[in-house]
Each structure stands twice: as C-alpha cells, then as structure tokens.
C-alpha cells in the first residue's frame, strides 16, 4: 500500500466566445486592459439579472464529461448560489452547478484508471489584487469546468503524468483555453493518520507547483499528528502554509438561484455530441504507429498536437505517410516555430501543402525551392501552382551546364580543392549553383554535370 492518497479538484477555463451569463467577450489574457469586457451583469450592478446560461459552455462540459467516460445527467440540473464574501465577488455568491441540492451534470467517470466523481460548470469571480485593492472584472463570469477525482492517486509523479494526459485529451476537443492553464485544489492524506486527516491545498496554479506541494506535504505528514485543515502553497519557500481549519459545505449556504432556470438536456443532442467526439490521444497514437507505420518518436511528436496530427492525416490521404512525415514534423514545424505561431493561428490549407509535395515529386519544384515556398505559407497559404512560373525547377541540361561552368569559373579555388581530394568543396559548389539559380536548379542533374565538368 502506498503512503499517501491524493485527490484532485481541477479547474480549467472553458474555451467559449462569451461569458457564462452575459454577452461579454470571454477574454482570459492577463495582458488585456482591465475592465474592458464588462457589463452590468458581470460587475453585479444592483438589480441586474443573469441571462440564460451560455449554451456553448454547456455543450463543452458535456463533451468533457463524455471524454472522461462519465454518465450524463439530463434532468433537474440546478444552479446553486455558493455564498461567500470576498472583494472579487460583489454579488456575494458564485453560481455553480455543484453543491447541496444539486446533481452534477457529469458523474461516475473513469479516466486512465482514476475515478471521476463529477464534472460541473461554474462561473469565475473577478480578480482582486490584495496589494493595490484593484478589481478586474474581465474574468468575472467566465465559465469554468471543475473536475473532481476520487483520492485514487498514490504519488506526485502519477498525478503529474495523469494531468498531462488530461490536458492533452481535453485539447483534442478544444475544451480548455490554452493560454489560461489549469488550477487545482489537491487533497492529501497519509497512512500515518490511517488516511483519516485530509489536508486540502488550495489554488495550485501549475502542474509543477502541484507536484512540489504534494512532495512537501508527503514529508510534512509522515510523522503523523496532522490536523484536518486547508493550506496554501508558497512557490518561493516551496512549502505549504495553514490557511484555516477545514470548512464544512454548509458554510457556503448553498441555495438554488431563483434567477436561473433548471436545465434539462436533450438526450438526442447528447448522443450527437457523443458521435462527434474525436479519437482519444491514445487511439491516435496507436493509429499513427499501426496504420501509418510511423516510428514511435515521430508519432509522439504528432499526437501531442491535435491540429498537427489532424493536418498530417489529411496530407496522408494523398501523399504516402512516409514521404509526408518529415515535411510535417520537420519543415512545417520549422516554419511555424520561426514565426512563433501555432497551426491554429495560421491558415495553411492541407490541399496547398499536398500540391507543394506533389510538385516536388513531379520534379517541378526542387526540394529547396519547395521549402522556401513553404516559408511563405504563413499567415496564409496560396496554391503553389500560382508561383510555378517563377519557381519551376530548371532541368534543361544546356542551361544547367552553363550555370555549372559559371560557378566553376567564379570559384577556381574550390574546384582545385575538390580535385585535390577535399570532398566538402563539392558541397560548396553545388550550394553556389542552387543559390545562383534561386534554388531552382535540378539538384541531381546539376550534381552530375558538376562532377563531369570537374573531372575534365
Ligand atoms: Zn458582462
């Protein structure tokens, strides 16, 4: 038996266009000017009522629940007011689909061997800076997903591996805002107290901090004499600090919100969502290895990026996977990295990419020229055939012969070096031929002509 039991309450920002109860833009970037996406509802002006809950958020939460193999409740989904007083919450309560008198929307799931107790939706409060006293309402009313697990984990490593896979799986349904990350409350109990004294660590804001906090708690709790309490993690001192004795659920005085309707979901719609779910990352990885015969290392590069793997599969419909692979995992990624962009942020059409590779195959474009055309695919791709007039491969032998002669004439030293046995000189000369032809000289023919001429 392990020394510790760990359970998680994970919070993530759902990737929706609008906030949960108003039409304000859902912007989660801390760089945005404070208080720009606000209205009377999400700033809790007196007399303001919420609008009907954002249907996109509800659909996303159903998707999340299904991806985690949960059952879905379709009836009597109640919004509760969870009361507490804090400067970030001027209305005095947070609307949540959890708490007393409520049934979770998704429940009783299993994700990679860890039981999912429930998965529900709630609104985010505003953000309050305790040093300046300033409140930013951009965040107020954003839809949050909360995923609650059983205390099934037994080590910090197991938790972090599992969380990485969770984030990856949810990225396949674009459920979470990529820029916002996840937060978690972590509960830990130790065998020294017979797992009876559960300590909760609140608001851990990264997977790294989650691991560090668990490691610290494991050591702290091992001698026993542990109180049931709520703590927080100090990421600078790398220790947890007591916040308060464990509160009871009743402290929040949950009551159903009379301003919000009881939600009922359409079973047919749930079936449709189920059918439209993508493969899981594990299924994708297996498919890459078995169907496309891709080595494990490249398969892992692909499956960790949903947009990239989808793109690869579209290209592989027309181009043999073995040929397409390096163009996607090396060349396409090179161009994206250079532009500091993700595939999602640019508009590169797979059909243009396929055309580019087909032109290389037909010897209409040199590989080098194709790579340079690919550089121009950001921010949006154009059909490569439209550039062919200026880019087409030069394969006319007399013309190439002429170019080769000129390059040798200009670089007599390199030609001599080659004849003296320096093989690198040949690379230099062929490089010069490619450069002088703007990467259009047919590589194979040029090399053949170059060797021939040098021997004379
Ligand atoms: Zn608003």
Write a concise keyword list for the protein shown above:
alpha+beta; single chain; 456 residues; Arc Repressor Mutant, subunit A; nine-stranded mixed sheet; 14 strands; 15 helices; binds zinc ion; three-stranded antiparallel sheet
What is the number of beta strands? 14
- How far the N terminus sits from the C terminus, by CA atoms, comes to 79 Å
The structural class is alpha+beta
Order of helices and strands: EHEEEEEEEEHEEHEEEHHHHHHHHHHHH
CA gyration radius, whole angstroms: 30 Å
The global form is elongated
Q: What would the average pLDDT be, to the nearest integer? A: 92
Work out the helicity level: 25-40%
Poorly predicted regions are: none
Number of domains: 3
Major sheet details: 9 strands, mixed
Percentage of residues in strands: 15-25%
* Strand line-up across the major sheet: 2-5-6-9-1-10-11-12-13
* Tally of contiguous helical segments: 15
Which small-molecule ligands are present, each listed once? zinc ion
Secondary structure: elements and pairs:
Blueprint: E1 4-13, H1 55-67, E2 71-72, E3 80-83, E4 93-96, E5 106-111, E6 114-123, E7 127-128, E8 135-136, E9 143-149, H2 156-172, E10 182-190, E11 199-204, H3 207-221, E12 229-234, E13 239-245, E14 255-256, H4 267-276, H5 281-290, H6 296-303, H7 306-316, H8 321-338, H9 350-361, H10 367-375, H11 388-391, H12 397-410, H13 412-419, H14 424-436, H15 443-455
Parallel strand pairs: 11-12
Antiparallel strand pairs: 1-9, 1-10, 2-5, 3-4, 3-14, 5-6, 6-9, 7-8, 10-11, 12-13
